[in-house]
Fold this sequence. Notes:
The chain is an alpha/beta fold.
Amino acid sequence: MTVRAARSDRPTAVAVMSHDVADLVLPHPLRTRLSQLVRLLPESRNIEPGPALEAALADAEILVSGWGCPRLTADVLAKAPRLRAVVHAAGSVKGLVSDALWERGIVVSSAADVNAGPVAAYTAALITLAARRTLTMAAGYADGWPEFATRSGADGLTVGIVGASRIGRRVIRELNRSEAAYRILVSDPHLTDEEAHRIGARRVELDELCGRSEIVSLHAPLLPETTGLIDAAMLALMPDGGALINTARGALVDTQALTRECASGRLEAYLDVTDPEPLPPEHPLAALPNVLVTPHIAGAQGSEAERLGQYAIAEIERWLAGEPLLGEVTRDALPRLA
C-alpha cells in the first residue's frame, strides 16, 4: 500500500504496548507509515501506566493498543478527553475495554482476525501431534522402542471442536484441507445444523461431542456460562487415550478434574492456556509426561506479529477515510467474542 504524504491536520495518536512486543508489532517501516497518517507521539512506544501515559493520552485522538496496554477504565479515559478510536493491534479486547469506553462512544477495532490465523494453524499442528499420541509415544521412548500408539488414523479420526468461533471455524477448514480423513463434530449453542454443514462439520451437543471424539479442541469464549465448561463429567465421557487441546481460555476447563484424568494416564492434554495462568512451577500438570503446557504462544509470534501492526494501520486508514472498520468490536458483540 502506498504511504500517504503527511497532512497538516493529522490526528494525534499514541501507541501503548509492552516493550518486548513494540518492535515486533510496529517495526520502523510501519511506524514510518503510521506517522504519515497521524501525529505519532515519539515516546509512545515506551509508556507504562502512570504520569507519562496520562500525558500522552491527554492529546490522543487515536490509541493504538497492544499486549501490555492497561485497561481503559473510567479513570484512565478521564485523562483522554479527545480519544475517539481504539485500534487494538492484538486479539481479544475483553481485558482492555470497559463500560466507560462504550458510554463515551469511542470506536473499537481489533486485529483478532489476523491473530486467528496463527492460532488455527498452531491448533491444527497440535491435532496432528495428538492424532499420533505424540506425548505418550515420546514418554515411552526412554524405556525402549514404544508400542505403536496412534489413534484411529486414516480411517477417520473424530475431532470435536467446541465453539464455532472465528478460530474454531478456521480449524475446521484446516482439518478439511488435510489429507487425513477427519470426522469433525462441532458444538456451539448459536450454530444451526445447516451452518455446521456449510463449514464442514456435524453439529452435536457437548456431551455427545466429548463421548465420540478422540480429540477435543476448545475454541469457545470465556463467559459465566462457559467457565468450567469441560468439567469432570465431560472429561469422563472422553474415550480412553483421548486428548484435550486448549488454545482458547484456561478457565474453560476444570483444572483439578483434568489433572486427575491426565495423572491416571487416561488422557493426554495439549494446553497453551491454563487456569491459573501461568501454572505454579510445582503444579502436577507441568510435570506429567502426557501433558504439554506452553506459555500462551499460539497467537501471532515473531514475524507474524508485524501483521497485527499492518492490520491496525489499515484500520486507521479506513477510519480516517470514513469507511467501515473490518475489525470493529461493538458492545453488543463483545460477550460472544473470545
